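Quick one before lunch.
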Amino acid sequence: MKILGIESSCDECAAAVVEDGQRILSSVVATQIPFHAVYNGVVPEIASRKHTEWIYGVVKEALDKAGLGPGDVDGVAATAHPGLLGSLLVGLSFAKAFAWARGLPFIAVNHMLAHLYASRLLNDNMEPASSVPADRADVPYPFLGLLVSGGHSIICRVDDFDDITVLGTTIDDAVGEAFDKVSKHYGFGYPGGAVIDKLARSGNSEAFRFPMPKLDKGEHHYDFSYSGLKTAVINQLEQFRVANGGEKAAAGMEQANIAASFQKTAVEILLRSLFRAAEDTGLKTIVAGGGVAANSYLRARLAEQQDLRCIFPPLDLCGDNGAMIAGIGYQYLVRGERSPLSVTASARVGGFKRRYP
Ligand code: KG4
Ligand code: ZN
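Model of the zinc ion complex:
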């Protein structure tokens, strides 16, 4: 069964064809990063306009690369939430129209659940660097999920592809958002995560000691926070300005050291809650997803945990892509679920169960 997946929740215009929920036949991601980089962040109006311009071409390319015509797919899936409303509407409307015109089953999916699904995809048709151990695709439930993107950060118990219970989440900024904001203030570039990750490689992560939030009590046992860290790192910038005679903000090694020290603290904040959840639930398998799952320090720290099995999507499936949408869409469709064409987009993640310790 071949499913066309369409993703347009933020600044990637993406479409893919996935067979039987696992095998990627094609995956096209048209990034809008150059259009937003000049503003140091995503401009919603530009994003939705670019999606409108590109969606037809991106879907066509995904079908062409899979060697399929529009009549050869068995269903259509699209992201309906969460994300930027105007951007979501473009992909969702296109997907609904495509499904309606061809009389195909249609399913609207949650972007965060799709990120969690990404590690189940096998991309043997893509870059060799993305090849993955086959056992990654069949991780048995339950396990712990670590969902880390630009807008959301969730530690959850996962009982099925669409059944998660949120154990912990951020009480303020998402982890990717903290990377983006620090990068913006230091002028490192956009989006911040990948830039800081690269810069940090030549830096000393012990150069600066930034605060870890104290959120270990009561209902916040697995929650975390990034606003304190973000503020401390941005305040450091002022000190650089003063030290450098009000001129240059931070230069050379200062930049690399800031990046490394910030990245280390940001990841340790996440891991403290994650390890606590693993300990308390007894769940020893962790599946990560979302843009921040590409972070090299996070991947290295989890890889060194002897008592945990940590599964990451390949790098090209951590960020937004259509394959994860097609993959999870297949799971709903084989279960017989369909979305009405009246379904609409929503900016909010909504609807997840929450369990307090
Ligand atoms: O999942 P995603 O592509 O889009 C959303 O659903 O938000 O995640 C984007 C986020 C951005 O905040 C970006 O800075 C971050 O993922 N990111 C990273 C890395 N690559 C992307 N954060 C840390 N390290 C990375 N290597
Ligand atoms: Zn995402």
